[in-house]
Amino acid sequence: MVDTEREPVLILMFGATGDLACRKLYPALFELYKKNHEFAVIGLARRQHTHESYRSMIDRTLDQNSEQRRDFLERFYYQPLDVGQPYHFALLKNIAEQIDTKYNLHGNRIFYLSLAPRFFGSAAENLKKAGITETQGWKRAVIEKPFGHDLASAKELNEQLLRVFDESEVYRIDHYLGKEMVQNIEALRFANPIFESIWDHRHIANVQITLSETLGVGDRASYYDQTGALLDMVQNHILQLLILTAMEPPSRFDTEDIRQEKVKVLKAIRTMSRDTIANELIRAQYKAGVMPDGTRITGYHNENNIDTDSKTETFVAARFFVDNYRWSGVPFYIRTGKRMAAKSTEIVIQFKDITQNPFFCQLHKAGPNLLVIHIQPDEGLSLKLNVKEFGEAGDTIPISMNFSNHHDSKSSTPDAYERLIGDCLRGDSTNFTRWDEVAYSWTLTDSIVAAWNDIPLDYYEAGTMGPSSSDELLARDGFCWWPLTKME
Ligand SMILES: NC(=O)C1=CN([C@@H]2O[C@H](COP(=O)(O)OP(=O)(O)OC[C@H]3O[C@@H](n4cnc5c(N)ncnc54)[C@H](OP(=O)(O)O)[C@@H]3O)[C@@H](O)[C@H]2O)C=CC1
Ligand SMILES: O=C1O[C@H](COP(=O)(O)O)[C@@H](O)[C@H](O)[C@H]1O
């Protein structure tokens, strides 16, 4: 982590009235304000607001018990702006300068593009044309996901951005990189020799990464139906989790060394082809079903604003290989989907059994050692071991050693957005994705998209953990998905 000075900054919040801004960004900014970060904000979107009505809108997103709300809200200003209208940016320039002077912000600027991706490029270009990016202080652009929809579009977007910002000023956000237990993967691996010494193909049988959701597409049908689970979740969040699990230790914990190691993993992931994809990947869509709480769910193609013939996948399971020495032959199974039985993100490391292990030969209850990294909703770790059953019986029983961030510390654990915006305020881009990371992840994803038209879309009942073909993907290798575990 880079340790830089806190400096005052003007945040230009594009998409200021949107879902992400209201649900995540304002509460995150409030927490940062309470931790003495100094900033003023100009909210930008097309609809009309006065400064006061904008502040009231933000207020509704905040914890109403805090007395600091009033001071915080006073730092917010609103300017109606259409990103397609260059003259709106000319007006913005004047307002930005006034607020800069009022709060003595030294010309430091963060441009947070919480907009639909098709607007990222034109917003950047119009900022430059209006001279808003020519500032006395530093400037940074936070870009939401998805960064393009394939490699070609990502390249085009990147070129547009790099005409305005230097690569070091571009903060491509993947909010999973701000989650507590995702940031803990490096510590778990590299601060514990007990794990690092066995973190390889000689000792690990397979790795399982699950990002299951109970929610459906909600109000984002038009985005999701064009996108699907592969581009929405695998191309970014899942690949990031896989990379952090598989990467080599960086020689130093500095931004570029870490990013360098991450890119090496991406380059080593085996791409898929038409000949291999049927054995490596399942794509499926949910049909009607019942959630564990009894709620009846309609099938995906009957959801509001979804085409009744839609072939968009709401579930993906896949087997990846990282073709390097450490991971030779170790399958990395991943799965993600909407309307599954539980909301859960976890990584399971299954260790190999000892050959000729007398416990395995003679006793039935011994299971493989598993290390489970619970990312959400629980945050913690569990290690599954076998011990002799207490008493006279000679059998073994599985036990679980748990560490859980359940209690006091949880209330002080920053939300992913708070952590990432805080990093950006301090100029630390370690937990943001560098261009080559994005490019390689698109190369891999494009190879899948190009090959998968030949594989049929499977279906699963809402409220389950996906289609049976996802279980068969592992069964062919002699493995199974380990059930999601709730920490005590
Ligand atoms: N919502 C979420 O949970 C997540 C969202 N994201 C990403 O965050 C970004 C924003 O998403 P989200 O908030 O959900 O989207 P919304 O559709 O809820 O909000 C879009 C925002 O953009 C504004 N806007 C639309 N058109 C224009 C325009 N021409 N000029 C200026 N402003 C415009 C809208 O306001 P108005 O209509 O007034 O102009 C609104 O403030 C997207 O890139 C999305 O992929 C990423 C992860 C999760
Ligand atoms: O980026 C996205 O992530 C959310 C899931 O995020 P989480 O933090 O709640 O796990 C997902 O619902 C959404 O479709 C996707 O765009």
Structure write-up:
The chain is α/β, with parallel strands linked by helices and 488 residues long. The protein has two domains: 9-172, Rossmann fold (3-Layer(aba) Sandwich); 177-414 and 432-475, Dihydrodipicolinate Reductase, domain 2 (2-Layer Sandwich), CATH 3.30.360. The chain has 16 helices and 17 strands. The protein has helices spanning 19-34, 51-59, 69-73, 86-103, 120-129, 151-162, 180-190, 193-196, 221-246, 255-268, 277-280, 358-362, 408-411, 416-426, 435-451, 468-475; strands at 9-14, 39-45, 76-80, 109-113, 139-143, 170-172, 204-212, 281-287, 289-290, 296-297, 315-321, 331-337, 344-351, 370-376, 380-388, 396-404, 458-461. The strands form three sheets. It has a nine-stranded mixed sheet, sandwiched between helices. Strands 3-2-1-4-5-6 form a six-stranded parallel sheet, sandwiched between helices. Strands 9-10 form a two-stranded antiparallel ribbon. Helix 5 runs parallel beside helix 6, helix 9 crosses helix 15 (435-451) and helix 10 runs parallel beside helix 15. The model has no long low-confidence stretch (mean pLDDT 93). Ligand LXAUTJHC binds next to loops.
